[in-house]
Amino acid sequence: MSRPDTSSGSCRQALDTGEKPAGGAPVPAADPAGRARLSSAAARRGQALLIRYLIGGSVINALVTSLAALFLLSLGAAPFHLGVLATVSQVDKVMRLAGVPLMGRLGKARLLALGRALSGAATAGLVAVALSCGAQSDGGRAGIWLALVGLAARGLLLHTGNTAWWPLVQDNTSGSAVGSFITRMRVPQRLIEIGLPLAVGWYLGTQPAPARFAPLFAGAVLAALLSAWWARGVPERAPAPADQGLWQRLRQVVAVPAIRRYSSYLMVRTFLRFAAFPFFVVVLTGRGLPFSQAVWLTSLMALGQILSLYFWGRLVDAHGTRPAISLSLLLVFCAWPAWLFVPGGGLPLLLWAALYYLGYGVAEAGLQMGHTRAMMGVVPEQYQGEGFAVVIYAAAFGGGVGGLVGGAAFEWVAQLEAGTRFEPALVYLAALQAGVVLQWLMSRRLHGYADEPSLYRLATCRVRWAR
Hints:
By secondary structure, the protein is an all-alpha fold. The chain has 20 helices and no strands.
């Protein structure tokens, strides 16, 4: 059968793979100050330094962020403490607003570097906590709360500096394909997240004492200092003239309907994620999965991301955010029954967890790509600091509430006796996984959604062109 006539342009537009924004996709507002964009050479240099900075962050995440829950468990933490950790990891983002005036005074690159360096100093406090608890398997209540304070201080300092992250990305990617840059940025990041956790898991063993974490945290301090050095050289555009006060600019940002809808969507997204994801490891380790294998699961999740990044980047650059977000949420929704059939332990449990985390990584890569593309499009360039701060605040609020509510809810359901053949804790995780339907409904309100092709349209056009 011959190919369908494309004179109407419907399928040609839906399947166009050129690297240009999809029809109706949000475009950053013009800069009223008329500030010149960075030269191509400066932008390429800036993108390379931003990628190096992110690589340093990936090392730190593998040595601190991904181990925070396991470190608390080695100190004898309860699910409630993990819920507090999830909340802390979101509440520390309130410092994004404090970083806005600092960004105007210090400059974007200098603020980014300073925040990373000071967060490294706070990480040194975690080294002290790990060593002070010695070789015992239970660090006691004091050790748990000291670790939480150290993690909170690290996050507060880091996110003060990270106020400048997205403005610098926007400065160095204006006029280029965002999906292509994000792909180049994420690939080395995910490669580190594949390899480093394997070594970390082997080093920690099955039931590590708190002191075993000290060298890992010390390595994170060195990575923080190195990535801070890289951040100092990132080129940046001149800041927009501050002819209004901070609160006036915030009101201008919040008045943009596209930002309000995107922020609402992110609140739902982070609530659902942080009410469930931190407790995956509790279920798996409670069923006998060794700590070392629990760390390796992050490598599999990173592998799922890196295998699919090129696909997601091409999809976003060609068709916008709608198909990437919809397909990712469909993958997450289809996996919810898996929680009702978690094996009891041994090799079946490891295989189940490996397949689940691999697929979860694929879905997360698509969501992150779609979210980034949407965020870069709705934040006006003349309100970079305030716009990205509002978006991050919305995500932090949803994640903070989700962590607290999820921690209390999970601890409560974990103590219930099973009324059916399914454990209450597994039913809880399955229900939240299915709850991404609400997230999908919210995604339909994002700016440009109606003008971007649906999954059905893309799929039917692919079938017609394949014939």
